[in-house]
Amino acid sequence: MAVLNVEDLHTYFKTEHGIVPSVNGVSFEVKEGETLAIVGESGSGKSVTSLSIMGLIDAPGKVEKGSILFEGSDLTKIGKKEYRKLRGNEIAMIFQEPLTSLNPLFTIGNQLSESIKLHQKVDKKTARVKSVEMLRHVGIPRAEKVFNSYPHTLSGGMRQRVMIAMALSCNPKLLIADEPTTALDVTIQAQILELMKKLAKEHSTAILLITHDLGVVAEMADKVVVMYAGQVVEYTDVYTLFSNPKHPYTKGLLNSTPKFHEIEEELESIKGTVPTPTNMPKGCKFNPRCPFAMDVCTMNEPALNETSYDHKVRCWLYEEKEAVI
Ligand code: SF4
Ligand code: MG
What we know:
Elements: E1 2-15, E2 18-31, E3 35-39, H1 46-53, E4 61-70, E5 73-74, H2 80-86, E6 91-94, H3 98-101, H4 108-120, H5 124-137, H6 143-147, H7 156-168, E7 174-178, H8 186-203, E8 206-211, H9 214-220, E9 223-228, E10 231-237, H10 238-243, H11 248-255, H12 295-299, E11 304-308, E12 311-314, H13 320-323
Helix pairs in contact: 4-5, 7-8
Bound molecules: iron/sulfur cluster and magnesium ion.
Iron/sulfur cluster binds next to loops.
């Protein structure tokens, strides 16, 4: 069974220019022990999708339509209090900058053992022992010393390890990681991703990973959702996405990712920018940037279709019948 099943999610923001649909009909599922990555440029709606799932969209934003089934119950129907209980218990989160998620006034040990005491219902002494164990488990050397340290005295990589320890201390079913390694240098980034992967496997945690980085996707994901302008444009498993990308936007992203290129080859970046929600092009939202755009693309919007088994694509190139209308 899917741990998380997002169905036709619409998240809108009210602005002075009118209603802005940041997420416009997004669907996907994440199974136990599986990592699904949502990839896209900034402004694609990927972070708004994750915030919607976490119940962190506040006015003027609103989850307008659709369902978010977590272990079968619809999160769009629960109250703020219930949501708060769910976050940090069943659903854990890791963000880009751990300094802002850790309280600067308390030691690492204080914060970690408070979390363990609360979620695992153990006494203070046991929570302390478990905290130090947990710090070792996430690869922190001199765990005893770090236990007594304040967040600002640690490096970014160490703080992110602490955040992973915090996130996993409540044995979550789902871990949402929004650009978890973007602020870190490449070597540390690889270590943190490796660690997340290892721990998630050990605990069969489902991971929803939000990233703009296809290198991170290749490293971590089982399934991939490519988002563009608030919609899913391609959805398949990670092997298929890299070996047989279909959507022109996905191809563009791959062509602009250095990891997948010979050094001599010149990288192409995708021309143009993501359209703003108040200024969406007619037809396919990618048409102003697409090298394959046809007449139909500027008039009608393509649907997300299953072009082959478990491979969905939103593009007229794969919808011959309708494209000739
Ligand atoms: Fe390009 Fe047309 Fe496909 Fe859009 S529908 S991605 S414009 S070919
Ligand atoms: Mg973001």
